[in-house]
Amino acid sequence: MNDPKTPQYSPLRTHLGRTVLITGAGQGIGAALAAGFLARGAAVGLLDIAPAHLSLRAAELNKAGARLAAAVADVADHAAVTQAVGRLSETLGATFDVVVCNAGISPKHEGRGVTMQDMDPAEWTRVVDVNLNGTFNVVHATVPQMIATGYGRIITIASVAGRTYFRHVGAHYAASKAAVIGFTKHLAGELGPHGITVNALAPGRIVTPLIHSVSQEVNDQVAAATPLGRLGEPEEVAEVALFLTSDAARFVTGQVIDVAGGWLMT
Ligand SMILES: NC(=O)c1ccc[n+]([C@@H]2O[C@H](COP(=O)([O-])OP(=O)(O)OC[C@H]3O[C@@H](n4cnc5c(N)ncnc54)[C@H](O)[C@@H]3O)[C@@H](O)[C@H]2O)c1
Question: pTM above 0.90?
Fold first, then answer.
């Protein structure tokens, strides 16, 4: 069914039979990703640090026939991630062949990113731990099975802030997302020979709970500076991830795709 050479090949149905892990799936972009993959027939493992987000989302998505499992874990904790991936695989009865490393944080202080001089070193470390090390931990826990099956699709969620100066976030966030892009490209090289593609999405400002901590004034400024004249919706990020993990994009790897309404054009 998923071999592009077979007559049954259909880009629109290519998530049927796939098993997908989504981190930070409890709300925002992760929740839209979960809904999108489920709607295309995939089995989905939801991972999130917040039990309340997770149970709410699982209850909402758990329609009759949906193949869904949920696990609480902090992506920054390698052992916890490995255990959660094992539990989710066991519940779903399959190893993960699609992974979306979406969990991320962007701390704000009174609606704005803190300056580097005022940054608490502990905040720097936590942001790098979640956004960068968390991405490593999730990929590290899932890649061996992809290599064993000779197939895999990995999506990392970076940010336009990892590609250029974006004054509304902190230096820790920008640095962690730039590193995620480097990690993505390196992995695409390493894992290509195993039939695994690795691509990054770089969202602009997307309307999720993450940006509720940002002042309305700042969000209005970003919308005004965006050629499409508005902020993005989580589903608009999810749709690009669905394409990149479908057989239609089987020759695309090592790319960073901005989903930013034209805010950045390089
Ligand atoms: N919203 C935006 O404007 C925007 C822009 C660019 C990039 N991004 C990136 O997109 C991703 C999703 O962002 P969002 O806007 O949906 O955020 P969000 O805050 O709305 O949701 C993030 C989810 O991740 C979970 N999470 C946080 N830390 C975690 C951890 N350590 N382990 C496991 N789960 C954790 C949270 O509980 C939450 O459910 C992040 O990586 C973010 O940096 C978002």
Answer: yes
